[in-house]
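Journal club side-thread
Mid-discussion, someone asked how the predicted structure for our own chain would compare to the paper's figures. Pasting it here so we can look after the session.
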Amino acid sequence: MCLCLCGFPSSAFICVHLRLDTLFWPIHIHIRDDYNCGGFEAHRVSDLQTSNSLADQAPRKPSLGTQAARGAVWATVPAVIAKLTGFGADIVLAWFLTPNDFGAVGLAVAVAAVFGMIQQAGLRDILTQRQKRFARWSTPGFWMALALGILCTIGMACFGPVAAKIWRTPVLSGLVMLMSVRCLLDALAILPQSKLQIQLRYRAIGGVAAMCTLIQAGLSVLLASKLFGWGPYAMCAPMVLTSLLQAAAFWWLARPSLKYQPQFRRWRWISRDAGFAMATGLVTIAVGYGDNSILGLIRNPEVVGVYFFAYRLAVQANQLVVTNLSSVLFSALSQLHTNRHRQVEATMSAARILSIVAMPLNCIQAAAANPLFRLLYGAKWEAAIVPFQLLSIGMALALVGAPSTSLMKAQGRFGFYFYWSAALSVVYLCMISVGASLAGAVGVAGAAAIYYGVFGIAGLRVAVGKFPSFWPRAVHACLVPLVLSVIAGGLAMISREFIPSVRDSNLLSVAWIVFWSFAFYLALIRFVMADAWHELMDRIRAMLLHRRRL
């Protein structure tokens, strides 16, 4: 863990802090001198400079790229664990719940996302972007977030009965009212999470996220089982509990300084960026959850349930990895706000590494979808196979533009990001509407895949601006891994057909496709993209070497 001396006189705080972090990882004490933590700077580092011998012995501070890479690893490792747990939980939930139950939850989550984005108002990103003056803006930022959280909780609870009538789903009223509590709980977590991001303490953030995901997954399965039979409430109730646990854990770890005066005079200086961030978030929500809403209006809750179940399974890896990577990359790029060239280089490098690592995962899960679904559910969720495959390909294409959002936010281009997102949301909703009208869940999944493929790389091009040799680098870094992943998955599927015992067994088919897809991909990537492969291996070896030295 990173031990931050936050000015608290009680030694008991430090002891508990250590024990909480070591629930997940070994202790690593590192005193930083590049930020002020709660009003107390680690000024002892400057004393070391008075002695040349001590200065020579002092460990060199890692570069920003190394810190960001380590942050990505520590954020991704627990995210992978949580992803596997969530994936397993969704598989079990599909045994107990019906497509109608999943459809009701999907609509409730879409409503909660809209009110949640209003409550967030981009305040976490704003505080992180203003990290040099965090002590000045932390108090007004907290009270503003709390006020928005209270208003959104009340507004969302009142909207519950209206939502039930709009989507012709009576159970939606209670689900929306229950989920409204999350607006208040998530508002409490904004300030401490911002401080943890500024300090690049992604080991702690990743641990809390993994713990909450494990608890949510376990409770969801338990409440959905025949022992309790909560139906769609089994998926919504644990979300509220984990929001409470996450807020409490972040406050315990960060211990941010806070004044009781709301400082209303400074609210207006936050409001401009918050207004852009809120509006941008709403149009982003239109892309992220507009598919459920439009599908529910055009079709019925059962079709929404089929699509929502396929979506949850297809995007779990991307949601966890990209969300954590975006937080790490945004914090790192914010520290480079005076050097645009380094920002762009870091963004392109992140897109390249992310494509190499994550694209084969999406393509392999698409290749193994048919035997996997039939192995687990028989014919119950057969309608979700094709949407799952299309969404898996779409998520692979979406990875190309994932770092572009972090770059634009780190540069403070909230206004431009809003207009760009607004234009894309209009295009996306039109495509989704056409897809839902023509082919239901399959049409929506196909429209989403096309959208992510076209506008993922377009978003990266817009974010980096005038960058020499962008298209050759983008094609080589992003599209080549996709093509190699498709080839590897295709070879694995074709080879299966020549072995009857494997072809006739769903279990053996899944194992065969997964194993040989990875084997073919590793062979192809080392041959076609040798430079990228060696760069990735060098980064991994450097981080492992650093851990052994500690």
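Post-session note: Confidence is low (pLDDT under 50) at residues 1-59.
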